[in-house]
Amino acid sequence: MNLPASLNGFWGADQKISESELAILPRDTEFAKKLYSNERGDKINCQIVLAGGEKRSIHRPEVCLPAQGWSVKTGEVIQIMMANGGRLDVMQLEIVKKVSLADGESRDLTSLYLYWFVGRDATTPHHLVRVLRTNLEMLLHNTNHRWAHVIVSAPVLEGITQQGKNAKETLAMLKEFIAHLAPEIMKSDPDLVARSSDDRSRSGKH
Fold it and tell me: Which in 9, 56, 77, 141 has the greatest CB count within 10 A?
C-alpha cells in the first residue's frame, strides 16, 4: 500500500481521500493515493484501494464514474509489458465530462482511466473474474482474501493546455508509468502472468 515517492521521472504528492469515498466504503477499507508530476508538467493520478472484510469495498469503476460526472465512451483490455519483463492485462476506459475553462468556455474533457485487480495469487482486469475467484475461495476453502484495486489515470490535455498530450501520447505515458509501477507494488510471482492471461482467454476478451 506504499506508493513510491518518485517513479520514472515523476514525483508523487499524497492526496486526501474524499469525504464521499470515506462515507460510502466500509471503515476497514485502506487507501493509498498520490498525484504524480514531472518537470514537463504532465500529471498522473494513482490510487490503490484495498478491500476489507466486506465485498463492497471494491466495485467496477464503470458503476461509480457516472456519479462523478463522467461518461464511459469505450473500454477494452490492453496488455502492458512491465519493466521486470512480465506482462500485465489492464482495463482501459476512455471517459469524458464537461468542464469549464478559465475563459468561461465549456469543453469536453477526455481522460484515460486504467485499472486492474490484484489478489493473493492472481491479477485480472475483470471485475467478474475477481468476484468469481472470491466466491470460489469462500466455497472451497472458507477464506475471504483481500483484493486491491489499482487505478492509474490522466486527462487528455491536447487543445486545453499548452503542450498538452493527445490521446495516443497520454496512453503511452500511462503504459510506461504502469510498467514501472506494477513491479514496485506487486510481489514478484511469475504465475501471476499466466493466471492473468488465462483469465483473459476464459472471458473471451482480446
Answer: 77
Instruction: Report pLDDT digits (tens) over 3-45.
Output: 999 999 999 999 988 776 666 777 878 889 999 999 999 999 9
CA angle 198, 204, 206 (to 5 degrees): 85
H helix runs in 65-166, sequence order: 127-141
Q: What is the DSSP letter of 128?
A: H
Average pLDDT for 51-60: 72
State the Cα–Cα distance between residues 118 and 62, nearest whole angstrom: 18
> At 60, which helix (H) or strand (E)?
none
Q: Which residue has the cell 482486469?
A: 125
Q: In the chain, where are the structural domains located?
A: 6-201
130-171 residue pLDDT tens: 778 777 776 776 666 788 999 999 999 998 888 899 999 999
CB under 8 Å to 169, separation ≥6 — which residues?
A: 158
